[in-house]
Amino acid sequence: MGRRLHVLIAGGGLGGLCLAQGLRRFGHSCVVFERDSDLDRKVGYRLHMNADGGEALRACLPPDLFELYLETSRKTPPRQHAVVIDDQLNELSSMPHIGPPNQGPRPHTAVDRRTLRQILLGRLGDAVHLGAAVVGYEEIGDRVRVLLVDGSTEEGDLLVGADGIRSAVRAQRLPETVIIDAAIQGLGLYARSSLPADLQAEIPPVLMDGFVIATDRRDGLLAMGAYNPRRPVTEARAAIAPDIPIDPVDDYMMVGGNPAEGTAIPPFAEWTDATATELRDSMLDAHSGWHPALRGVVERIDPATMFSISFGRLDPTSAWVPSRVTLLGDAIHAMLPTLGQGANMALRDAATLARALAETNDPVAAIAAYEAAMRDYVYPLMEAAADPSSFGGGGLARPAAD
Asked: Is there a contact between 249 and 182 (Cβ–Cβ < 8 Å)?
């Protein structure tokens, strides 16, 4: 490997933490600056995983933590497909998930986002600084100094902006980049719906496929993805990595949808104790006449898990001159969740960059190689994901008007 580096990472999401694990595995040191003071902010639940993201975890994690990831991943579903159905469960279209070959007895399936983040935090200890947002940086010769929100600074050999779509690092590194508001029609609320074991044996099989969106071919949508791990999370942790703090997780169905027409979704910061229940009940009204199994998914939503979300994306940015500051994940290629690629690409970025830094004594050359590979691989996916109707083979496209 090349010389030992000290890498500053802005952002403690999945990509930033995976990079931290990979750097340590290759003999480098790092520090992660995360703006949140804890892990409680609601940003999503179930994540689709493919071989891009899963094999990145294999490359970066210690073997026991990778095993813990596999065992807490979702059981292999009947079909690893993205499926579009109508409101009476009739299949309209489907397509295999995107990515490299993903077979074997334990293919990459889906994870609970919080569980995966807790695995990625495993053994990083005081290398992760919570409540410490990076707000700017300066390059000083062969060093980089970051400015933190509290006014303090820290220096390292490199800076990696893994701080999401509103990245402070990207705002300085590539200030011409514009965030594009990109709402997905019919998807404004996310929640978890209970999925007890006895129900899993009775639920229509199509709802247990890889990921499912039901549509009435007008304005009604219901997005669903099951999370039922190969091994209960608490049991897997106790058997594989008992030193890693991980919260227990019951089986659930991730649900995305909208309330009935005419019901406004208030900004999440303005929700009262009653808001989530009122929105859940309005969602149920929006799906009157839908198949009972679909209405049942809405009925079982736990209001405490509900939150509202707004989507944004970036357009591909033209190549730039590499330096000791680079970007990964949503900070450089935020895309709509249409193809289920956002988390996978952030993890792939992390593994690609960690490997590049391990193979040369010239960190700027390593960053140049990483950035070129990232653009070649991820930019086409950004463009494909920009069209939500492409999900599941095109079944969301509305029929032509008579």
From this structure: no
Contact 13, 344 (CB under 8 A): no
Length of the chain: 402
Average pLDDT of 281-289?
94
Regarding the domain delimited by 6-35+131-182+312-391, which CATH topology (the fold level of the hierarchy) does it fall under?
FAD/NAD(P)-binding domain (3.50.50)
Structure-block tokens of residue 376: 């070649």
Q: In the block, which residue shows the tokens 């919570």?
A: 130
DSSP per residue, 336-381: -GGGS-HHHHHHHHHHHHHHHHHS-S-HHHHHHHHHHHHHHHHHHH
Span 133-155, average pLDDT: 97
Token representation of residue 140: 């000083």
Closest CA relative to residue 19, chosen from 120, 116, 108? 120
- Euclidean distance between CA atoms 235 and 197, whole angstroms: 16
CB 127 within 8 A of CB 31: yes
Q: 């289920």: which residue's tokens?
A: 340
What are the boundaries of each domain within the chain? 6-35+131-182+312-391, 189-311
3-class SS of residue 122: coil
**Distance (Å, rounded) from C-alpha 75 to C-alpha 214?**
22
Q: How far is CA 276 from the centre of its chain?
A: 23
Q: Would you say 56 and 350 are in contact if contact means Cβ atoms under 8 Å apart?
A: yes
Please report which confidence band the pLDDT of residue 401 belongs to, taking 50, 70 and 90 as the band edges.
low
Determine the 3-state secondary structure of 273 from DSSP: coil
Tens-digit pLDDT profile for residues 14-72: 999 999 999 999 999 999 999 999 888 877 899 999 999 999 999 999 999 999 999 99
Contact 212, 206 (CB under 8 A): yes
270 vs 89: CA distance, rounded Å: 35
CA–CA distances in Å: residue 376 to residues 106, 265, 369, 371: 29, 38, 11, 9
What confidence score (pLDDT) does residue 402 get?
A: 43
Strands (E), 141-187: 143-148, 153-156, 158-161, 180-181
Q: Where are the alpha helices (DSSP H) in 47-123?
A: 51-60, 63-71, 113-121
pLDDT one-digit tens code per residue, 207-238: 999 899 999 877 789 999 999 999 999 999 99
Residues 170, 187: Cα–Cα separation, whole Å: 28
CB-based contact 366:354 (threshold 8 Å): no
